[in-house]
UniProtKB/TrEMBL annotation:
Belongs to the bacterial ribosomal protein bTHX family. Residues 1-29 have a biased composition (Basic residues). InterPro entries: Ribosomal_bTHX/bTHXc/bTHXm. Residues 30-42 have a biased composition (Basic and acidic residues). Keywords: Ribonucleoprotein, Ribosomal protein. This is 30S ribosomal protein THX. Coiled coil: none annotated. Transmembrane segments: none annotated. It comes from the Bacteria.
Amino acid sequence: MGKGDKKSKRGKIANKSYGVRRPRKIRKRTPVEEKINIKGKS
């Protein structure tokens, strides 16, 4: 278990890959309604 292990978090970081052990950060998307309201007010 370490940098060479493809299934560990440390191995994912070393291999620059993602998976169950190292999920990507989830971006919150703003709803379309909010975008329309922001543009309409200014």
